[in-house]
Design goal:
Length: about 70
């Protein structure tokens, strides 16, 4: 039996639900396997967490200068 594949629309929907917005993905990179999707999700989680942490730090610093 073949491995479950994830198409671009399913990936965008799943990531969007998790992160509360639209995640734009390159359709030419799909379909991908469920394992590849899991890796993509982990990488995106790490990237977005770093972006949020940096934004919070900037806002914290800016708030302290008022």
């Amino acid at each position: 039996m073949g491995q479950k594949m994830v198409d671009v629309y399913e990936a965008q929907l799943r990531l969007g639900k998790k992160w509360g917005g639209f995640i734009d993905l390159a359709p030419e990179q799909f379909p991908i396997s469920e394992a590849e999707y899991t890796e993509l999700e982990k990488e995106l989680d790490n990237s977005l967490e770093r972006i949020y942490a940096a934004a919070i730090e900037v806002l914290r610093r800016k708030g302290g200068k008022r």
